[in-house]
Amino acid sequence: MSPRRAVRLAVAAGLAAALPAVAAAPASAQQLLRSWGTLGDAPTQFRDIKDVVADARGYVYVLDETLGSSGRVQKFTADGRLIRTFGRPNDPDDQRRTEELPDAIDSGESLAIGPDGTVYVGEAGPDRARVSVWSPLGEYRRAFGSRGDGPGQFRSAAGLAVDGAGNVLVGDSSNQRVVVFTNPGAFAGTIGAGTSLSAVDEPTLGSTDGLTFGPNGLLYVGDSPQVKLFRPTGEFAGLFGQRADDPGPFFQDVSDLAFAGPVLYVSDRRLSRVQAFTETGGYLGQLGAGPGSQPGQLTEPTAVTTDCRGAIYVADAGNRRIQKFGPAGATPCGDVTNDPQERFLVKLGGPTVLRFREDFAAVPQVTCDRPCTATVTGTVRISGRRRAVRLEPAREVINGPAPVRVAVAPSEAGTDAITAALRRRKRVSASLRLSVRDLAGKTVVRTRVYRLR
Fold first, then answer.
1. CB of 169 within 8 A of CB of 177?
2. Which uninterrupted H or E stretch holds 304?
3. CATH class of segment(s) 346-452
4. What is the pLDDT of residues 287-342, one digit of tens each?
5. Are the C-beta atoms of residues 324 and 333 closer than 8 Å to each other?
6. How many CB atoms lie within 10 A of CB 125?
7. Which residue of 24, 118, 206, 424 has the fewest C-beta atoms within 10 A of its own C-beta?
8. What is the DSSP letter of 388?
9. 322: β partners
10. Phi/psi at 184 (nearest 5 deg)?
11. In b/e form, how buried is each residue of 189-219, taking b as 16+ CB within 10 angstroms?
């Protein structure tokens, strides 16, 4: 089978289900509805936002790179409440190479959501290039693709899209093409393969910054300073745009594309704006005057996505935040408050009593499948002593899913009393109270009492 024929079968089969039916409001009716995020590496913070996508159930996924080049995906509700985090956290003490850590995200560049909720991350780091596949709960499943210039290989993953049948398209700017994979990850062909980084007004690609399917069945590719259209067969179908700063079909640095019904939103990183167009490139309006840091303003937006109601989420990378736009009074895609799929999973390891020279500490072990806060309090009783020794409260923020030891210990005076009692062979017992809450303060594990002797 020829690569072109394979592309036709792989992509055309899924186009009908690739886009949700939404009623798009005109650009002039879009208002800032919500904003979240600040600079940092803690949960709900961002350092280098690469992409943002929304799924059909109302969740928003943000791909970010933290200090130390550790990539992660944070999953939020539509109002910015953090649900969980994907990807192995950066560990400076781990001497293994990146390719030995399948659940580590290495230089993630793009995100996409499959029709079944599967999460795809396009990675193009110095050690490997691949598409990693994750469950909606953040469980690593598999990966496909490799670094190179041959069939099924790519050197960058600046754009990523999944059609209704689960076929994955990777925008490989380094090789000036879109690489197509079938659902299991088998190579199916290429689209728009070019030979030059500059392909202005050409039926080939120079860059692939953003991929999306239109309701007309065409594939839209951001190739600065233009947007190019391709048929499911891989044939060139048209383009619009030219290099300029004026409002309209003018771009300097196209960073992403997303449809809400028949309206195409295009983010421009250099001009700090998101513009709206018809399917054929007719100008409809603009979101976010920039650059600026005030609410509703944008600075270097790297990505744009829309949800099932037509709300627009912009990765405002220069301000390290996500901004959500939409018509006033817009309802969310669905109620995810009590989503049974997103149940909070917590594992508790039994505490141990540790004695290091003159120190005393009790250490429970806690594992959360998403960010949480574990608090331990308690007392130590010594035989013959009327008053118990109070342990200083210990609190740990757990980013999950790795287990965390929460060490709780007495004050210096309490340590002296316990040490003296142990030397005299007196009976010492501890009573610990452990509680776990999510980052919104909701109790996940009610107070659990441990007694140690």
1. no
2. strand 301-306
3. mainly beta
4. 887 799 999 999 999 999 999 888 999 999 999 999 999 887 777 776 666 666 67
5. no
6. 19
7. 424
8. P
9. 36, 315
10. -70, -10
11. bbbbbbeeeebeebebbbbbbbbbbbbeebb
On the CB side of 405, CA atoms within 13 Å amount to 9
Separation CA 96–CA 10 (nearest Å): 37
pLDDT tens track for 422-442: 788 888 777 878 888 877 677
Q: In 3D, which of 170, 98, 185, 187 has the Cα closest to residue 133? A: 185
Are 77 and 336 a contacting pair, CB within 8 Å?
A: yes
Q: Greatest CA span in the chain, whole angstroms?
A: 89
> Cα-flanking dihedrals φ and ψ of residue 338, to 5°?
-115, 40
Helices (H) and strands (E) in the chain, counts: 2, 36
**pLDDT at site 353:** 55
Q: How far is CA 450 from CA 173, 191, 379, 393, 410, in A?
A: 56, 61, 11, 15, 16
Q: Which CATH superfamily is domain 27-326 in?
A: TolB, C-terminal domain (2.120.10.30)
Query: How long is the chain?
Result: 453
| 25 or 314, greater pLDDT | 314
State the pTM of this model: 0.77
Q: Is 270 left (phi over 0), alpha (psi -120 to 50) or beta?
A: alpha
